[in-house]
Description:
Blueprint: E1 4-6, E2 9-11, E3 17-22, E4 33-38, E5 45-50, E6 57-59, E7 67-72, E8 77-82, E9 91-97, E10 107-111
Parallel strand pairs: 2-10
Antiparallel strand pairs: 1-3, 3-8, 4-5, 4-9, 5-6, 7-8, 9-10
Amino acid sequence: VQVEESGGGLVQPGGSLRLSCTGPGFSFRWYPMSWYRQAPGKEREWVASITKDGGVKKYADSVKGRFIISRDNAKNTVYLRMNTLKPEDTAVYYCKPDGVDYWGRGTQVTVSS
Length: 113
């Protein structure tokens, strides 16, 4: 299993970012996928999930209405579009196939003016 997250960076409050998650040599199409995040000094928390076919999406209350999870199984990629970012969204973001005990390195998102 290998998962690679990318797309993080420094953004001002109110800005947007799109995170990507790919799985070199590992097919995502058979798995529901989720995004998680871990802020400094806090436990890792669930952010969003998407079913195998992309038909059902769920979000944590803290990001509902601002974040959008999507996937392109042909490209073996899962995305997290993050809009109206807030300083409290600052964290390392991880994607994970549901039911697979593996964590990638994550991608850092920093929201600051």
